[in-house]
Amino acid sequence: MVPTRILVLGGYGGAGKALIPLLLQETEASIVIGGRRKERAEEYAESLRRLFSNRSFECVEVDAAHDGSVVRALQGVDLVVVAAPVSGMVQHLAEVVIGEGVDWIDLMFDRTVVGSLKVLEQEILAKHRLFITQAGFHPGMAAVLVRAMAPSFTEMHFARVAMAMNARFPTPDSTREIIEASRDFDVDLFTDGRWRKATYDDVVTVDFGSPFGRKKCWPLRLEELRAMPDDFPLREIGAYVAGFNWFVDYLVFPLIMGLHKIKPGFGDRLLQYLLYWGTNTFSRRELCVVMQAVGEGMESDRKKSVLLRLEHSDPYYFTVAPVVSCINQYVEGNLPERGLQMMGHVVDPKRTLHDLARLGIRIDRVESDR
Fold first, then answer.
1. Bridge-partner residues for 242, per DSSP?
2. Among 8, 200, 220, 334, which is most exposed with the fewest C-beta within 10 angstroms?
3. Tens digits of residue pLDDT in 178-193
4. Spatial CA neighbour of 138 closest among 178, 197, 99, 188
């Protein structure tokens, strides 16, 4: 494995704290912990030294809104992993990263990130940089699961990805991206061979098995699935997500949408606290995340279905484990050398699932005749 120097932007946040130990365990990379408060990065580095005594870490103060600090943090770096909620400034941050000749992976699920980066697509290509966006499990793994099911069919006509999560938020600020993504119900579903706007009538009930059981799920917009009907003869594909709990689903989310109609950004601090408090107070005590995909189609002359189910107790770990697999495939030279890519499109599905199973993600696969 080629040693790589990786800057984790947001290194002491929830996702960063889950990502860095796994990077240290699974790679030989040199890690730079970046955040707005260097003393917090140093505190986290000290706790890591007790677990990884043979590794050294660098801590840098970096504010994504200030070019100078970003440029200083990128010196000598091969890859930046954006694990901080900076979707509002992603285009400018990406321009600085391109200018410094550094590759990029981001864990942001705000759908505007893809559009912001597409503006820079030609510049990314011209500078021979690789930018991987929409990494993690949500987004990230939906397209991986669809692509993993496809070889089981001669023709796959139907694919549905659904997820349920029982999580805790470490701070009110950590809810920011969910609030931004929840303001507008703007979701597309592919049905009867064409894309259409989803409505609240498109709610489906999904059986996730233990511990969630049967849950109502709402359509979810995942940009990575847009390309799937071009790759496979699908007649229907969609992503769905279960709610958090009664307080969040029926009080907080309607309030998010209502206040947004009055004035964009109105009441953000209150909403962040309500989502943080409501999730941490009223959700089940047991942490868990389940993501499952169902595919249907033909294998030669028989109808067939495939179920792929992934489960783990820690939503943050479940988020970063696919990223570590992606980074290993990047370091090994198994990803495209340049361009703007989505993680779910470029990683090897079989390799990724193998890595996740090895890292402790429970994976069940069931194939049956229909």
1. 217
2. 200
3. 887 777 677 889 999 9
4. 178
